[in-house]
Write a structure and sequence with these properties.
single chain; alpha/beta; Rossmann fold; Helicase, Ruva Protein, domain 3; 5-stranded parallel sheet; 16 helices; 18% strand; flat; binds S-adenosyl-L-homocysteine
Length: 478
């Protein structure tokens, strides 16, 4: 982050505004609407700034040269349409330690203006680090649409009671629950509906605020949340809400950093996963810690790659939670196989060509008791293999033994839905080689005729389309 979003106290002193023309007038309108005191230097000498009578008290038209004018007490310097004077002003302001913005000139700005959503006490500032105000405006529109119209009134309402509730509920987590219960319940609804008097009376009628807070959330709970294969935009809305609500998150190693970024800042995060070659804390220990956290009243999220119920040991965790009598919920996620199919445009079923799908873990591929290869011999079955990278030779041997043709199309899709996703396709005969070509996991394997329909392979160096690759291989085999 180059620019930290902060809120400037406009009561602390005047803002000096320097510039000319429409750019100057536009910036003046922004600052005036925010309620700033403004000292304007119109360097083209045109003092027709389109000011209303109300503005006169807060806006001074300065005659002095801005480069030598007294800046003591000034809280910020803003240049809009000031040309070279803006650059010189920037040097001067920086020397004095004053925040300065030169419009459309990041190099000479020490602060920038965000796009603003203004709902009274609730103000949302959207920035793009100065790179793209258009994107900031789009984000602002989305937020505008999302926020209830009276959200500012709700903030003001809470502000009015904050001191007295702080005095009556000492513990911070309980206080947070108190306000959450107020906001989510009938009192919040009354404020948002414009019935403030009713809300006021209802809040004052709460005799024991601590008891009220406890009754709202009697105990903690665990949400088993599927994080999907990596792209944070593939989180469900429910998953996102759970991440924003959680007091503590136990997450797998496979969960991408972009997704961990969506967790509330003050939430405790605990990495519990295993990775190839690196042991985790163990399933029993994970269960124990989740249960303890929930029993102490925390909202716990157990965040898992993909879907919790697809090779994710979610079943065992649910059993442990049931046995402990802890409340839980399950929020599904997009499993890696589906993420990979979409990312590389491989339809898992296809009219008459592929009429069923098997999701298989190759974790114990060498153990015939665990994987019965003979059930996979149907050529119209698409086989999606998890944890199949090191087991690639065993998978190939197993499918050959089941009677699958060496010419069966195969795709290896690594790091699906992430920016560094990569695929390699060929035939079953080349499976171990295809795995090597994707440069590291995690990867899923998709085996079956449908792989012919694959779309792009991203970083695959080959110029050929997936269809060509497979038909060339088949030709060579004939
Ligand atoms: N519960 C997870 C699977 C966990 S098992 C889910 O539903 O996706 C771990 C295996 O998932 C990895 O060995 C790999 O085969 C697959 N996997 C997970 N994330 C992946 C990704 N981003 N790209 C490709 N494969 C992935």
């Amino acid at each position: 982050m180059r620019f930290l979003p902060v809120f400037l106290d406009l009561k602390a002193g005047p803002v000096v505004l320097i510039g000319a023309g429409e750019l100057l007038r536009a910036k003046l309108r922004v600052l005036a609407a925010a309620g700033a005191r403004i000292r304007v230097h119109a360097i083209d000498g045109n003092h027709d700034l389109g000011l209303g009578a109300d503005d006169a008290a807060r806006i001074d038209i300065a005659a002095a040269d801005p480069l030598t004018a007294d800046l003591s007490g000034v809280i910020a310097v803003v240049c809009a349409g000031a040309g070279d004077v803006g650059v010189a002003m920037s040097v001067r302001a920086k020397a004095l330690g004053l925040p300065v913005n030169v419009m459309d000139d990041l190099e000479h700005s020490s602060f920038i203006f965000p796009a603003i959503v203004d709902r009274g006490d609730v103000v949302v500032a959207v920035g793009t680090g100065g790179t793209s105000p258009v994107v900031a405006r789009r984000v602002r529109e989305k937020i505008e649409a999302l926020l209830p119209a009276r959200i500012g009134e709700l903030a003001e309402f809470i502000g009015g009671f904050r001191k007295s509730i702080n005095e009556r509920i000492a513990e911070f987590p309980l206080r947070r629950r108190f306000w959450e219960r107020v906001i989510d319940g009938p009192i919040g609804a009354s404020v948002l509906a414009g019935r403030k008097g009713e809300a006021d009376a209802a809040l004052k009628a709460i005799a024991d605020p601590s008891a009220f807070a406890r009754a709202g959330k009697p105990e903690g709970a665990v949400a088993l949340v599927g994080a999907g294969p990596g792209d944070p935009d593939l989180l469900t809305i429910k998953a996102l809400r759970a991440l924003q609500d959680a007091d503590i998150v136990f997450h797998d190693e496979l969960v991408s950093p972009e997704i961990l970024d969506r967790i509330r800042r003050d939430t405790t995060r605990v990495a519990v996963g295993r990775r190839v070659g690196k042991p985790g804390i163990g399933q029993d220990a994970i269960n124990k810690r989740m249960i303890e956290a929930a029993q102490s009243g925390q909202r716990v999220v157990r965040l898992k790659g993909g879907d919790p119920f697809v090779f994710g040991r979610g079943g065992e965790e649910v059993e442990a939670l049931r046995a402990a009598g802890v409340a839980y919920s399950i929020i599904p996620g997009i499993t890696a196989g589906l993420g990979g199919a979409a990312d590389f445009e491989v339809p898992l079923t296809y009219r008459h060509e592929a009429t069923r799908i098997t999701f298989l873990t190759a974790h114990k591929a060498r153990d015939a008791e665990v994987v019965d290869w003979s059930t996979l011999n149907d050529s119209r079955m698409t086989v999606v293999v998890y944890m199949g990278m090191t087991a690639a030779p065993a998978i190939r041997a197993g499918l050959f033994a089941a009677g699958r043709s060496p010419e069966t199309p195969v795709g290896v899709f690594a790091r699906v839905t992430r920016p560094d996703a990569q695929g390699a396709i060929g035939t079953l005969r080349d499976l171990p080689e295809l795995v090597r070509r994707t440069h590291g996991g995690p990867a899923i394997l998709i085996i079956g005729d449908v792989v012919r329909h694959a779309g792009s392979l991203r970083r695959e160096t080959s110029e050929k389309t997936p269809k060509q690759i497979i038909s060339d291989l088949l030709d060579a085999a004939e």
